[in-house]
Amino acid sequence: MSSTILTADEAKKANIEVITDGKGTQAVHDAVVAMRANRRSGTASVKTKATVNLSGKKPWKQKGTGRARAGYASSPVWSGGGVVHGPHPRSYAKKTPKAVKKLAFRKALSARILSGDVLIVDSFEVKEPKTKGFVSQVKGIAGEVRRTLVIAVTFSDITFLAARNVATDLLMTAAEVNTENLLAFDKIIITRDALEALGQRLNG
Fold first, then answer.
1. What averages of pLDDT result for each successive group of 10 residues across the chain (204 residues)?
2. How far, in Å, CA of 97 to CA of 172, rounded?
3. pTM (two decimals)
4. Burial of 84 (C-beta count, 10 Å sphere; 0-12/13-18/19+)
5. Kind of pairing, strands 118-121 and 4-5?
């Protein structure tokens, strides 16, 4: 399957404005940080002296034993006691304005286009649900690279089946691909109809 490198001029024909200066760099950082933060579960939890399962009884009397005063076995200074300032369930979610998300996506796509990492194909489809066929087709387009992102408007069920065991490559539709995806792969393969869809998405 033949492919061509997507240039800035060809991208403009698809209504994709290529950013050539430093505009949008901070937006990319903010968007990626937010996406990674939103994936955090925030379920880490420890028990404090009030919630640890130990008796509240005074271990020994206040005076006369020669030992230091002790009020309860759940004291944080004792082994098995509560934890001070430990983590508790919380949300790490960050909200990113739509305008920032769109700018970040445009900047990330522009950077990959300017670096020559985006390849255009007429279509992408695997005829048989076999991993070998998928890997061979991707290598035929992108060459010997470690990780490849393939973007199309839709994929056939057979293509999904052929790609499911390839951990280094990813299939994404033009509607769901995000900024982090654009930055995480060595090469990006985009079908022509997906390129048009990305242009509509950026100008919508």
1. 88 92 95 96 95 91 95 92 95 96 97 96 94 95 94 96 95 96 97 95 87
2. 23
3. 0.84
4. exposed
5. antiparallel
How many Cβ atoms sit within 10 Å of the Cβ of residue 173? 13
Measured in residues, the chain has a length of: 204
